[in-house]
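Quick one, tokens below:
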């Protein structure tokens, strides 16, 4: 066996995902935001959908910590779990400020398309490899934080007066550490022998599920 042969790296898999995305259909919510046609109803729908996603994420990250307790994976999934825990009260505050009813934000069942992300992250928690999970989480961050930026920018250009706390929520600041630890955990999984092709497939599934998720939010 040639020990000098180097397989795919976390960085090269990230580059492959970015390349493949170039042929994807447009993200409908991003297209609406870019055209400055975003409505308050769509922002409220995003908040409610995200609160429902939090329920799935908390269970999923807890399961991931149990399955991959060793470092760096256990620490990485704990960081995601902690991020969602901290985000919950802030997002409920955003809902309060925008007048979103308790009934709307606590609704358990909405539409199948809104639950695409919830179902997939739950499936990954139970069956995904470490590499598959990390690749999917990187795709999730790319999509989510891109939408956050677009919501704030479109609201400002379109004259939607969002409360400062809502703007602050959608502008979380420097998230480079989350990308760094997730990519490092992906590399750890590849070094342990996880299948890189399956990792890319998992990331692309996340891309597609989130495209459906954002289209449903856009339909509000």
């Amino acid at each position: 066996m040639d020990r000098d042969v180097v397989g795919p790296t976390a960085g090269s898999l990230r580059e492959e995902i970015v390349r493949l995305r170039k042929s994807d259909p447009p993200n409908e919510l991003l297209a609406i935001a870019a055209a400055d046609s975003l409505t308050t109803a769509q922002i409220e729908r995003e908040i409610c959908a995200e609160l429902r996603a939090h329920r799935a994420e908390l269970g999923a990250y807890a399961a991931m910590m149990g399955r991959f307790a060793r470092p760096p994976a256990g620490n990485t999934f704990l960081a995601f779990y902690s991020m969602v825990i901290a985000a919950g009260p802030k997002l409920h505050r955003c809902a309060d400020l925008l007048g979103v009813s308790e009934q709307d934000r606590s609704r358990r069942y909405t539409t199948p398309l809104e639950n695409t992300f919830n179902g997939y992250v739950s499936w990954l928690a139970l069956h995904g490899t470490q590499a598959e999970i990390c690749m999917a989480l990187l795709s999730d961050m790319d999509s989510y934080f891109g939408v956050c930026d677009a919501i704030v920018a479109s609201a400002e250009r379109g004259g939607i007066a969002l409360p400062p706390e809502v703007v602050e929520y959608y502008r979380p600041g420097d998230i480079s550490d989350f990308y760094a630890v997730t990519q490092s955990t992906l590399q750890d999984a590849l070094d342990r022998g996880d299948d890189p092709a399956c990792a890319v497939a998992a990331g692309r599934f996340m891309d597609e599920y989130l495209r459906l998720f954002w289209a449903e939010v856009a339909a509000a």
